[in-house]
Design a protein that fits this description.
By secondary structure, this protein is α/β, with parallel strands linked by helices. Helix content is 23%, strand content 27%. The strands form 4 sheets. It has an 8-stranded mixed beta sheet with strand order 1-14-13-2-3-7-6-12, with helices on both faces. Strand 13, helix 5 (221-228) and strand 14 (232-236) form a beta-alpha-beta unit.
């Protein structure tokens, strides 16, 4: 197998070639609930989840971006069922983050506009890398609330003065043409990641030269951002049409890179 390559095949075929405990980080959005037409391809969720557990290193992290469609008046709950299955096979549900869309498409009906998707962080054991995104802190006191006691009292611990704090686990991104990416060809795919979302998560959970995998590579956003951030990468994409889109998009960014063998 080669790195820095998108394999035009089912991700189960790709992962079948990968040794145990090999990948540092996975970020992907599966074709859940037929919300988008991914050229008619389906995916075997449970088999994929089990293979991801096998190929991920101890300390590795998966970012699984998923939402629910509404069918016959009810949301499917697919996102929750998938999260619980990941836990059942041995993953830790390390964090339940939110991908919040600043400018979603308006919807009709008797529900509020859908502004977010779940961004589950599953870890195989304790994450080995955490490079938190920070922001300026408004308050610079010496005390920080630690926990609330059984009698309801607040316990505090002293901390050093700081001008920065970790951001919250709700991530805000604007989406759409010319915003998610400047690469026009990417919009030939029906659903693309904001590049900033992928960059934030790769920077948080990996270091340079770590190996990133996307089992549903789509328009190639994960590959592009991993390359620009100096991570090793490879991916799978079952649709030949989408592989061609991704390869055309990546050509300018990867033309001077040689493939390397696993």
């Amino acid at each position: 197998m080669k790195l820095n390559k998108i394999y035009n095949e089912d991700c189960l075929v790709t992962m079948g070639k990968i040794p145990d405990d090999y990948i540092d980080f996975v970020i992907t959005s599966p074709p859940y609930d037929d919300i988008r037409n991914y050229n008619g391809f389906q995916f075997e969720f449970k088999n994929i989840a089990n293979e991801l557990f096998r190929v991920l290193k101890n300390g590795g992290v998966i970012i699984w971006v998923v939402a629910d469609s509404t069918i016959n008046g009810t949301e499917t709950g697919t996102s929750f069922r998938q999260a619980l299955y990941f836990k059942e096979i041995g993953f830790n549900l390390h964090d339940t983050m939110i991908y919040y869309k600043n400018n979603p498409m308006p919807q009709t009906g008797n529900r509020y506009h859908q502004h977010f998707e779940y961004m589950f962080a599953f870890s195989k054991g304790t994450p080995k890398t955490f490079n938190p995104i920070t922001e300026p802190t408004k308050y610079r006191g010496l005390a920080n609330m630690k926990n609330r006691g059984q009698n309801g009292s607040l316990n505090y611990e002293k901390v050093e003065r700081t001008t920065e704090k970790k951001v919250g686990n709700v991530f805000f991104y604007s989406v759409g043409g010319g915003i998610s990416t400047k690469d026009k060809i990417a919009y030939d795919h029906p659903a693309i990641f904001p590049e900033k979302l992928v960059a934030d998560q790769i920077n948080t959970w990996t270091n340079e030269n770590d190996l990133v995998y996307d089992p549903f590579m789509g328009s190639g956003t994960t590959a592009k951002i991993a390359h620009l951030l100096k991570r090793k990468w490879f991916g799978s994409e079952i649709s030949k049409e989408y592989v061609e889109i991704a390869e055309a998009r990546l050509k300018e960014h990867t033309k001077n890179n040689l493939f390397t063998e696993i």
